[in-house]
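Tokens as discussed.
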């Protein structure tokens, strides 16, 4: 009987999702069995569950420099974004309502803003630089007397570019406008402090930091007027009704503890791997560019345009060779249109479609990088040979 040899596989798509850390899973398991109580029950089973949820809330709060009472557990980053934006807008008594955001937001924000427009809310979508960074002065110029909310992501999911939230936070405070940030791609990768950033609301997601899918959180600064999206019980201070998912909250809490402890060392190590990946690919493959390279970025993310190659074909070919990456946001995979983020930074459609995102994680090693570097140039060259537009540089002959 012939023995099958498993192909080596390297996962470089951590911005899409991360594996659940074994320690996180271990922390969760009791709450699927022996510790099954409803956290709203007053008997001992319920009180044990309540204590676990509140410990998790404290851990999440500590990761972002918040008070535990200001953390609301949600089903993920998308719900957190929706709750923040709809919640603030629906709670406002203004007759005319205006929201300011950017052209490179995640669809959880963009589609929510588009839904607001169908209700008569006006939205300004501020452009960004060629490196994918918004100018705070452009945010300031977009403000109007009826502006009630600014929503600017902390780190872009495709480029990794970090936005100047501290400056925008000061602008929002001066104008007495609520400030929300989608921090799904920054929490656990770079330091996040809600006080230093000046945000009133901040969204995060569990499955981006080695917790399970289906859990996230929204920070809501005390005093922020926000209408709930759902109605039922009086859970989570009337901000998000429904029986808490105790196991998922515990998992997010454990992941937050681990992220806080490992952040300094993990970030530096992953950044070194990312920088090496970029430099080696630039030296080995002609006609490529790193999108957003000149901006401050999260340490794990690089977005590279491979001219004369179709991005999704490259992703599939790399996957067949054992390297997992993506063309951008996982929720947009299969989209016909080029990435809205890459077109917003000025890339023509053919370059946007030729761009791949590599996002590293704490589990990646130097050996993973060597394997990826042995595969990527070969696959790119093969696909380019099939393109009638590509002419191999003389130095590469």
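Sequence:
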């Amino acid at each position: 009987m012939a023995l099958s040899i498993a192909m080596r596989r390297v996962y470089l798509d951590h911005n899409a999702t991360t594996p659940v850390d074994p320690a996180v899973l271990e922390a969760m398991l009791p709450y699927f069995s022996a510790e099954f109580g409803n956290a709203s029950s007053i008997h001992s089973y319920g009180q044990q569950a309540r204590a676990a949820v509140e410990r998790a809330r404290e851990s999440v709060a500590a990761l972002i420099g918040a008070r535990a009472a200001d953390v609301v557990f949600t089903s993920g980053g998308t719900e957190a974004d929706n709750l923040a934006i709809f919640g603030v807008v629906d709670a406002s008594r203004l007759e005319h309502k205006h929201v300011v955001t950017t052209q490179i937001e995640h669809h959880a924000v963009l589609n929510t803003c588009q839904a607001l427009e169908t209700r008569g809310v006006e939205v300004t979508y501020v452009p960004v630089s060629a490196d994918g960074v918004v100018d705070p002065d452009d945010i300031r110029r977009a403000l109007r007397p009826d502006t009630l909310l600014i929503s600017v992501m902390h780190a872009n999911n495709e480029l990794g570019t970090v936005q100047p939230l501290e400056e925008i936070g000061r602008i929002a405070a001066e104008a007495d406008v609520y400030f929300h940030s989608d921090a799904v791609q920054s929490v656990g990768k770079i330091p996040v402090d809600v006080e230093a950033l000046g945000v009133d609301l901040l969204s995060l997601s569990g499955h981006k930091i080695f917790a399970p899918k289906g859990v996230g959180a929204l920070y809501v600064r005390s005093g922020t007027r926000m209408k709930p999206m759902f109605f039922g019980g009086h859970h989570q201070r009337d901000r998000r009704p429904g029986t808490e998912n105790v196991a998922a909250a515990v998992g997010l809490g454990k992941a937050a503890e681990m992220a806080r402890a490992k952040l300094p060392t993990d970030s530096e190590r992953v950044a070194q791997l990312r920088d090496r990946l970029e430099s080696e690919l630039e030296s080995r493959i002609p006609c490529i560019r790193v999108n957003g390279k000149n901006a401050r970025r999260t340490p794990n993310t690089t977005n590279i345009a491979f001219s004369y190659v179709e991005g999704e074909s490259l992703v599939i070919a790399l996957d067949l060779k054992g390297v997992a990456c993506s063309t951008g946001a996982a929720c947009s995979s299969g989209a016909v249109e080029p990435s809205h983020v890459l077109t917003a930074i000025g890339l023509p459609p053919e370059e946007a479609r030729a761009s791949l995102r590599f996002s590293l994680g704490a589990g990646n090693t130097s050996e993973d990088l060597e394997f990826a570097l042995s595969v990527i140039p070969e696959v790119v060259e093969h696909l380019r040979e099939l393109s009638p537009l590509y002419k191999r540089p003389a130095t590469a002959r």
